[in-house]
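The instructor's notes for this session suggest beginning with a concrete chain rather than abstract definitions. Hand out the sequence below and ask the class to guess, before any prediction is shown, which regions might be ordered.
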Amino acid sequence: MSRLLHVSSGPYAPPVPARELTVTSADGSRLHVEVHGPEQAPPVVLVHGWTCSTAFWAAQIRALAADHRVIAYDQRGHGHSPASPACSTETLADDLEAVLAATLAPGERAVIAGHSMGGMTVMAASARPRFQAHAAAVLLCSTGSSRLVAESTVLPLRAGRLRTALTRRVLGSRAPLGPVTPLARRILKYATMGAGSAPHMVEACARIVHACPRKVRHAWSHVLNLLDLDHGVRELAVPTAVVVGSHDRLTPPVHARALVAALPQCVGLTELPGLGHMTPVEAPELVTGRIRELVTTYVNSAADTDVKEGA
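After discussion, reveal the predicted structure:
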């Protein structure tokens, strides 16, 4: 499990969950799950990305938990979830299905928001029966379905074989990230955030990312390198909104536009000028607002319809 070094105060300090549970995935892997907010409130499921943890969603959890039941979990090997030798898009889908089964009642539908590898988790699970039974709508933040290394602009080189090869080596590095130093913050900000990101945002992201064990970071980098979930996008047959930062170097806007073109029910693309890859941290109010809109439109309205039909 990672060393939990997240910030302890301010808007990015993780809220205390109403309850915690351990969910067992299909292969026996254990997943740490947190539930925030009132038990009877409309549900939202948050799925974090590569090298992150539930702490990444602190701002959304804090804002939504007043009137939503917010479910967040640590991907295997991240946060409080133990590492597993099995790392693949299939295990990502297995894990999400296990969390949905453990936290949602039969027939209960939620908005599912995924950032980066969390969005890829949603795409991987899109054709699974349990996902389809529980997903009312989806928010995809800063993510892509294929060609991640080839399209990355982390290295300021012309697109081509050299940039792809060097990017693969950088993202797949086994080197430890070490302590969060001023230099480490500058590097992380350049690679993952917009130039205007406030210091407290950079600090929160640096602490979360540096807490991820290097073996876990390296193992999942192989999955991202070989990622091909274009078929999963076409199977994502629920209303889906897409958010991306215009200066995202890890999953540039070309990915978001490809998603919009392929999604069966895209309900909007939001491109945020000057923002990088960490959109839930860089634009917390906007991401929270998009989740609220999806809940209002696709969860609450459906519940109101069921009440009227049952009257």
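Then share the key points. The longest strand covers residues 30-36. The mean pLDDT is 94.
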